[in-house]
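Supplementary Methods S3. Input chains for the assembly prediction are listed below.
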Amino acid sequence: MSLVQQTNEGGQELGARSELTAKELLREVGSVLRMSEAEAAALALDEIDPTTDQTMIINMGPQHPSTHGVLRLMLELQGETVLRCKPIIGYLHTGMEKTAEQLSYMQGGTNVTRMDYLSPLNNELVFSLAVEKLLGIEGDIPERAVWMRMLLSELNRMSSHLLFMATNGMDLGAVSMMIYGWREREQVLRFFQKVTGLRMNHNFIRPGGVAADLTPGWRDDVLSILEEVEPRLDEYDVLMTGQPIWRERLQGVGVITQQEAIALSATGPTLRCTGLPWDLRRDQPYLRYDELDFDVIVGSYGDAFDRYAIRLNEIRESIRIVRQILERMPSGDYRIQDKKVTPPPRARIDESMEALIHHFKIFTEGFKVPEGEVYVAIESPRGEIGCYIVSDGTSTPYRMHMRAPSFVNIQCLPHMMRGGLVADAVAVISSVDPVLGEVDR
Amino acid sequence: MDLLHGCPTGDSRGQATVFASVEQYLPLVKKLADDGYNMCSDLTAVDYLTHPGRALPEGVEAKRFELVVNLLSLDDRKRLRVRVQLEDGQSAPSLFDLYPGTEAMEREVFDMYGIAFTNHPDLTRILMPEDWDGHPLRKDYELGQIPVQFKQVNS
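Predicted structure tokens for the full assembly:
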């Protein structure tokens, strides 16, 4: 058995060009590269001649350090040029949507928070919003809980984008940037640890509100983060944005047009880099984003540099939003006083038998959710994250589906890479900023 | 009951829904795409094997599988959900020609539920290995269990 046969895993992979019939190639090229039929036909005629076939198929990943986890790309190269590319995913698939069907709505947060592990609070938020919509209590959430959710979600956006700054810099050789990005993100994670008890995978935003109130002195903690991060962003500008090598490396790389981005259902910075101002915080406002003043950052060329610049400026916008939240944070309850979904306070358990029983019941059985199905979408740092829940009237979801932005955005990779250099492939993957935990779920 | 392009509509917690049969599905989505729904934000499926008695509008017959397509209009800022009833083994037309972004989503549905899509350019498993048996998100898929034995316990 030849080495190719031994290592081939079947139809998921990119087939060898010489083994394909013209029709198959046309279909494969057309589908993977999203070209019109006329374009694909022209390409097939150009490149199908197997006698002059000088191309090579190589695997990039799944253990390549710049593939952000376990993304595997099959690249067909001609010299240094990428002719075709096919992302192969599933190496991190752990069946989280199946797991969600076994966990109650109370426990579901621990599951969804592990999907996009760089913005766990956004995952919890969309899950909680969907459950609240099914329960019909979405209008009764106390104001303080709503504003706390916004505060945490924006700080999470900052930490996620700061990590993007770090990994994007590292992928492109600006290694010192990696240290700086992690350093700033650490400040945000320390705040999360103080408030939620954990640095990641918080399970803090729950159906009905949040798990606990903000810690004393939280305002000073947040202000010190903002005061530290804000001048550092200007340092990033000096270090990267204005630097000629950085610009050479990113400008004009991985270009995508607006029509292509919309057709491929891309969202988040991948869509906004093409100049379309589509941000669910502004266009389909949830929580109280409609009361805040912020700008939607768009690019104009659709290249990797635009995607970098959008994320950098989105950190600035998040800082602006957080400052407004600090001013307007209301006092009051941090979770809904609905005995059906809210466990009793810890102190009551020691003195009241009923509270103990209530606490026990709510954490073992969970709460029942009326029959129905909803789809709720919010803007995560990577794009539209949607949660589709079907309830059959019991205390576990009948079906829970996450519309993961990275899973959809990753389809843009073949298109962005086509005709580019293999060295730019790294820049392109990095600029889409996929989180493989979310891609594979 | 209101009809949208000849298909019954519904309302689920204030979210607009339209029900289509397999035959109506592709023509309906084509018309909706012309109506301004220019992005297909999500495509998934549900296996209603153990929950057959769900609420459906009059004239829609409940079948085992349901294909759920969430369309988004970027200009009008509104969403619409298309729900299609499918029998076991029945295939649905692919939306690839209208929305190329559904390629990976349809592959995921095929992988997880075994629902085939006609005219899909590359219908292979996407998350599970190529040689995997069965479709994990089906309700009759056996859940794996590891027997736990407590050894060395002296009663």
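The first helix of chain A runs from residue 3 to 7. Chain A has 20 helices and eight strands.
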